[in-house]
Amino acid sequence: MRALFRREYVDVQAVRELSFSLAPGERVGFLGPNGAGKTTTLKMLSGLLHPSAGEVEVAGFTPYQRKPEFLRTISLVMGQKRQLSWDLPAVDTFELHRVIYDVDRATYRRRLDDFVGRLDLGEIMVKPVRQLSLGERMKCELVAALLHGPRILFLDEPTLGMDVAMQHAIREFVRGYNEELGATVILTSHDMGDVAALCPRILVIDEGALRFDGSVGELTRRTRPLRRVSVGARELPPPAELRALGREVARDGDRLVMDVAPADVAALVDRLLALPGSHDLEVRDAPLDEVMREVFRRGVADTGTKGQA
């Protein structure tokens, strides 16, 4: 067999030329196509991977040294990994984490009561984890990750596979934790709803390098400068009548959606408001998921980079 087959090793540079800094209390989206280096970066920031070159510093610590003080400062939650014991109730894992992180019982009870109330876990946390739905398990994963009060939270696909209601609950919980404790949140997700709801700032990487650092609005203006205008009306005009003002995106029943250049927004709005029975007119930026699809289609390098630090 050795004469027929042999192993070949290839070095892959997963992260390169990646430099950024975050202020305490920021909520930052970390975006990029599959294989861009997002999870690798989170693993380096949390100390699971040792960088082969360069320096990583988190809250004054070198992550890969895994000092106890550092581990009490951070928490990493991955949507495709679990820390809960499959055959035990989640509350048993909570108690185990209390002991591991040396959280006094009064603080533990106060935090647990708060988290259980926010996430409605009263009956859920006493069931064996294998009996819980995906969303229920993720709620418990978050509680287990936050009971020691970390100031830095790394989230990798936290709402993967969840329904809309469960996604909303997770997002609001993370937002509340960030705002009340001033915790820093770094989020990776392919669900742009997570990013749009939680992250005023986003970092976009591709092939392990930083391509963009700025706000969602700035990325949208660079990538999709057209504004999205929608209106409902009793009678909608034929497409040809509005073609000079913008591009029709959708027409569904009494609802019309168009993309229009910023300079033409006022003229289009005047025309739409004059339609018989016009109502619920909205003007907004293109949805973030459309923006990111365009970024990935064109290549992230075309987006431009701001604010490397």
Written overview of the protein:
With 309 residues, the protein is α/β, with parallel strands linked by helices. The chain has 2 domains: 27-220, P-loop containing nucleotide triphosphate hydrolases (Rossmann fold, 3-Layer(aba) Sandwich); 225-285. It contains 11 helices and 10 strands. The strands form 2 sheets. A 6-stranded mixed β-sheet has the order 2-3-4-1-5-6, sandwiched between helices. Strands 8-9-7-10 form a 4-stranded antiparallel β-sheet. The longest helix is centred in the middle third of the chain and has 18 residues, at 164-181. The termini are far apart. The model has no long low-confidence stretch (mean pLDDT 89).
SSE topology:
Layout: E1 27-31, H1 38-45, H2 68-71, E2 74-78, H3 90-100, H4 105-119, H5 134-146, E3 152-156, H6 164-181, E4 184-188, H7 192-198, E5 201-206, E6 209-215, H8 216-223, E7 227-232, H9 239-242, E8 247-252, E9 255-260, H10 265-273, E10 279-285, H11 288-298
Parallel strand pairs: 1-4, 1-5, 2-3, 3-4
Antiparallel strand pairs: 5-6, 7-9, 7-10, 8-9
Helix pairs in contact: 3-5, 8-11
